[in-house]
Fold:
Amino acid sequence: MAMSDLVQSSKSGEIGILTVNNPPVNALSPGVPEGILAGVEAFGKDDGVKAIVLIGGGRTFIAGADIKEFGKMTSGQTRRGPGFNEILNTVEKSSKPVVAAIHGTAFGGGLETAMACHYRVAVADALVGQPEVKLGIIPGAAGTQRLPRLAGIQKAVEMCAGGDPVKAADALKAGILDQIVEGDLLAGAIAFAKTKIGQAPRRTRDLTDKLGTAEANAPVFAAARDAARKRARNVLAPQAAIDAVEAATKLPFDQGIAREAELFQKCLFSDQSKSMIHVFFGEREVAKIPDIGKDIQLIPVNKVAVIGAGTMGGGIAMNFANAGIPVLIKETDQAALDRGMNTIKKNYANSVAKGRFTQAQMDERMARITPQLTYDGFDKVDMIVEAVFEGMELKKKIFGEIDKIAKPGAILASNTSTLNINEIASATKRPQFVIGTHFFSPANVMRLLELVRGAATSKEVIATCMAISKKIGKIGVLVGNCWGFVGNRMFGPYRREAQYLALEGAKVADIDKALYEWGMAMGPLATGDLAGLDVGWRIRKELALAGKSTGEPTVEDLLCELGRYGQKTGAGWYKYEKGDRTPHPDPEVAKIIKDTAAELGVPQKTFTDSEILRRLLFSSVNEACRILEEGKAYRASDIDVMWLHGFGFPRYRGGLMYWADGIGVKEVYAQIANWHQQYGARWAPSRLLRELAESGTPFREAKPAPFN
Ligand code: T1G
Ligand code: NAD
Structure:
């Protein structure tokens, strides 16, 4: 019997069963809460039913509210009928025990629904969580009131302010779950429900023993606010979530719900939340490649090899080892190999020290990485990732070598930052198996993986690399083959303008501070020091050989000529103490800049933080428009996702193009056209930008040229 199209009800003896069927993730779309309510009320009146089980159909329990509905809520369209909290209160008031049976993910409104039930059982690999803060909101259906009653203050604050999922075993320990079911979930839940027949249902709202005292709780909330300020700088929702959980310890249940609703509304109508919801869907759209369907045959990748154990090679190898995939890593000489392996060991030891994983896990991962100086075993791997110096001749030489060794069907990938993938592929007899896999530094940390589609790259190779990206914890974004691809093509102008501003009189530290305080994970010049200034230097020298230039001022070349490559040499734009990554302003650099500016006759002036911000980000917006007009990216939202996961752009600002839409395409164009007059060709507005401004079309609706 259907309570609504999305909730079916059935019986097993005296147990009433409500099954939510709203693929793909049983979100609480219109009709689902209403179906649950109708089911509980109907079973409530059915004398043959002594207890109720609520379960999700398909791959998961309820994964939360329907995020697609939020836009309607913030545009004033309200849903008819009882509010979600009322529905949950009715479930909780049921005189017959209601048991939530959880598999997959009980997230957000899904966990809130389960906590309004009287008992919760789950399979061992289930996850529960309140991830709302990742959407810039807080739990809005009593999650901040019921969770502390089940799991205590500390756990509730962690889950609501952090948003990370909790494994079933930990949820059981915390008191959120009542039982882990072995075998069939529904059978286990029915058996559990039978044990509760005739007992007074345990209503979560009535449980207060874990709410602690104001005195005992105060340090917990203070520490949580501090941690959230550090972890989620400038972000509203985590602080609001902590306020709401605190309300649970100070107010009666229904007043706590009212306080939560206030905070929820404030967050939901915030720009931060709109930005983060844009990102949620953007991160799902990147995986959709128009001409590559879900039916494309994937190539099994169970063993990998990496060439080069430098800054990038080591991090790349760690990603595969972390995902359980054995990796061979090859270098030219023992010293370079030892250096590379020591960096890997140090990075793992850091993670163990920070409690991210155990020593045993570190040993397991290290054991999956095989350092070597030869190509032994390369004929048995499924994928080879090259990460040697940035030089076309060297890369073509290596691709020529691995083309002769690698087994048929192996994927040959290059981590090149800028070089032409088709030209690299031309060094092989199997260009259809060649692809760019451009990781971002540090490769074991940054989640972005820019996949570069060559003219011959096969759909199987692309689909496989998109799937591998997810497996190694990355967000794969497919882009077209052009100089600097999409990421660095946009990041180049951003870092170029930072250098010009330094020449025009802005202090190095002020430029970085302006972007950092605005929300970037790190300032543009400090980022250069992290990645290694020599990478760009090699690229500029390679270009100069071809009579080309990136149009960057010369300061970074001067620094590199002095051996100032950044953190890896203890000095770059800043100087660094041994073993410490803290950047210290260096008067020597200030002098180099001053002398270069005087030599070039650059007029000196002061800049506001907003001018610095716009000079850098508008230059990237302009380049992003060029990328779209050339068909090198599929969507403007792909560009947003790349800035978040490749360049530390703040999630609560939605990404480069989404942020620029907040300012408005006309204003952005006008400013760029003005700088074109002032600074010349490097600020020439792209054609697409001009067209968007003339038609008043927002960036997010920009139509890219056909992908190529
Ligand atoms: N609403 C609408 N659509 C959703 C959705 C949701 N909550 N979750 C997923 N989808 C869509 C997604 O866009 C994609 O669509 C498809 O489902 C598969 O998702 C009241 C207010 C559950 C762990 O934040 O974390 O509850 O691209 O590719 O990798 O207090 O989706 O195929 O068209 O991500 O297997 C809180 C969000 C909401 C959970 C599955 N809940 N979802 O991951 O698949 S706020 C969340 C996820 C809330 C309450 C508040 C993940 C997943 P399409 P997918 P996946
Ligand atoms: P790196 O100088 O730190 O490391 C390169 C390593 O390659 C060195 O250890 C060198 O010994 C080794 N090598 C050279 N020739 C070799 C060969 N024939 N066989 C085996 N090993 C060999 O450089 P990196 O920063 O790791 O850059 C590597 C590649 O990744 C370049 O193409 C670069 O453009 C790209 N990349 C760099 C970054 C970055 O931020 N550093 C980011 C993305 C991509």
Observations:
- The chain has a mean pLDDT of 95.
- The longest strand covers residues 7-12.
- The pocket of (2S,3S)-3-hydroxy-2-methylbutanoyl-COA (ligand 1) is lined by residues 24-25, 27, 63-68, 105, 107-109, 112, 131-132, 135, 137, 139-141, 143, 281, 284 (CB under 6 Å).
- The chain is about 50% helix and 10% strand.
